[in-house]
Write a structure and sequence with these properties.
Layout (H helix, E strand, L loop, with lengths): L6 E4 L7 H9 L4 E4 L2 H10 L4 E5 L7 H9 L6 E4 L11 E3 L5 H29 L16 E5 L4 H12 L3 E5 L2 H10 L4 E5 L5 H11 L9 E4 L8 H6 L4 E3 L5 H26 L16 H18 L3 E8 L3 H8 L2 H16 L5 E6 L2 E7 L3 H16 L16 E7 L6 H10 L7
Helix pairs in contact: 1-4, 2-3, 4-9, 4-10, 5-9
């Protein structure tokens, strides 16, 4: 089972985080436990683990540094359990009490994706740098983090706002859901704290509204519980909350957790803006703004080598416009060509920030998906095809609009396989009728 492990647990005993480890195992975040730092280092060097959870009782002053070094060149997200945030150096997140397994899994997923996006950003910097193009960070990235605090204020909520302000964040208070949405539509926020009433209805309604809005969907949400009434944490995380703070959580710890989520979200947007800034360059495909075949091949080679060194999976997907009667008619009239800029824009917006979309041929697209297994990559490509397939494109006067359906191929990189061979297998999979 250790070879399927995703999370390292560093704990001399199971008293504090044994239940957390069991919960992570049940959620598919299979854990492997090390009882001392030396064993943890050896485990990280042998296995491509995605994150580490450290029991504070097992935390030595140099533990986080040693674990990060052992995982290199992968960036290892680290969570420390059983400590106040200001007592831990080198951790991405610290919690005084063990979090709910769903909460821990969500935070580890967010930290892991942020690490992969950061790795991809540096690979893109190298790819474009060789072509004389510098990817610059967003000038606004250094501005104070902006936090929305929604709900009727009381002593604890004001204490949290003061802690955030003291840390340099800008806190905007919204006493009702109506004012909260007014602010959300007028101002960009890096995170939102929703103050729960006794039945949490206003907070849940705000969260639901944000998750229905594509612009607000990715803003991390924290629910700040007002009382001790029982509430299903699984339900809360399924509703889109990234974190939940209980009445027992110190305001300073809550503030640190909010700032960590907000900072990660800001960095994620900064990277996406930097990567999107090249879409209008002559180096990119003129019609869609996606990578050209030559640029994609060069970058895919760099991504493949990085995946091997970091012991991460890599998958490639190919999407080809399916030959249907409406598409044939649209092609003859030039309407398919007119639809390509919109299709390309949709492809670029439907992938994650760390994925690389390209236009390989006139009606063929490709995606490089780092840290992604083959079946997950296929599902992602099929979802993209399904979304585009729901869009009607103009087919000219006197003809009904047409839709573009896609054939999908996918392949996961094998040991010792070249980037070119991987792309060939994904392309050949387009014609595989046995699936």
């Amino acid at each position: 089972m250790a070879f399927d492990a995703r999370v390292l647990i560093l704990a001399a005993h199971d008293a504090r985080i044994g239940q957390l480890a069991a919960g992570l195992d049940a959620l598919g975040w299979t854990t492997v436990t090390a009882r001392d730092v030396g064993s943890a280092e050896a485990t990280l060097q042998d296995l491509p683990l995605e994150a580490a959870v450290i029991d504070f009782d097992s935390l030595t002053p140099d533990a986080a540094v040693r674990l990060r070094a052992a995982a290199q060149p992968r960036r290892l997200p680290i969570m420390v359990v059983g400590a106040a945030p200001d007592s831990v150096e080198g951790a991405d997140v610290a919690m005084s009490v063990p979090p709910h397994p769903a909460q821990a899994a969500l935070r580890l997923e967010q930290l892991g994706r942020a690490a992969i996006a950061e790795e991809e950003f540096h690979l893109r910097v190298a790819t474009f740098g060789l072509r004389g193009i510098s990817l610059a960070a967003d000038p606004g990235a250094a501005a104070p983090l902006r936090i929305l605090a929604a709900g009727v204020a009381d002593r604890r909520f004001l204490a949290l706002s003061n802690a955030l302000t003291s840390a340099g964040a800008e806190v905007v208070a919204a006493p009702t859901p109506y004012t909260a949405f007014d602010y959300l539509h007028e101002t960009l926020f890096d995170a939102a704290i929703l103050w729960g009433t006794k039945d949490h209805t206003p907070a849940l309604s705000i969260a639901a509204g944000m998750k229905r809005n594509t612009r607000l969907y990715h803003i991390p949400l924290m629910l700040y519980l007002r009382g001790t009434d029982e509430i299903s944490l699984n339900e809360l995380f399924n509703r889109g909350f990234a974190d939940v703070a209980s009445t027992e959580t110190p305001e300073q710890e809550t503030a640190e957790r909010v700032l960590a989520m907000a900072g990660a979200h800001r960095r994620h947007l900064t990277i996406r803006r930097a990567l999107d800034s090249v879409r209008s360059l002559d180096l990119m495909d003129a019609s869609t703004g996606l990578f050209t075949p030559e640029l994609f091949a060069a970058h895919l080679g760099r991504v493949a080598e990085a995946s091997r060194v970091r012991k991460r999976p890599l998958s490639v997907c190919v999407l080809r416009v399916r030959e249907t009667e409406p598409v044939t008619w649209a092609r003859q009239g030039g309407w398919l060509d007119r639809a390509m800029p919109q299709i390309g824009a949709m492809v670029s917006r439907l992938v994650r920030v760390e994925d690389t979309p390209a236009r390989l041929a006139k009606e063929v697209f490709a995606l490089a998906l780092p840290a992604t297994r083959g079946e997950a990559a296929r599902l992602a490509a099929e979802r993209i095809a399904a979304v585009i397939g729901c869009t009607a494109f103009d087919a000219g006067p006197d003809r009904s609009p047409f839709v573009a359906e896609f054939d999908v191929g996918a392949a996961e990189m094998r040991p010792g396989e070249s980037a070119g061979a991987l792309l060939e297998r994904a392309s050949a999979d387009l014609f595989d009728k046995t699936r």
